[in-house]
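Kindly review this protein for my students:
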Amino acid sequence: MIVRSIDVAKKFLGETLGLPLLKETDFPERGTKAAFFQLGGSEIEVIECLHEEARRVRLGDNEARIEHIAVQVPQLNAMLEHLGAVGAQMDAEPIVYDGDLMSFSLPATTMGVRFQFMQKGAGRGAHGS
């Protein structure tokens, strides 16, 4: 989720809903900071854009919005081949970030929703964006 204020999100998700805060991370190279909450066997990542223009582009006038849904897969390349065979398209070549290999879909080709497909640990040792 993209949020206007990570502190407001932490209060609502953590205090109001009682979701455990797993970790917080700063991404200065991306101009964002993030917090991860556990929801059953899944995680909710909330992202605050630190630069006004980026916040306006990604959030608009909203306080929060779902930007994409991340799906962990055992083999990213196999998933991308499968998706391609049914007409889904990615927005770019896979990237490595924080040791994980990932790719994002073009929403128009995946039910109007942007999906992030991620293979955890597949990029360890590789240089990533």
In short: Strands lie at 2-3, 21-27, 32-39, 42-49, 64-65, 69-72, 95-97, 100-104, 115-119. Residues 1-66 form a domain with the 2,3-Dihydroxybiphenyl 1,2-Dioxygenase; domain 1 fold (CATH 3.10.180.10).
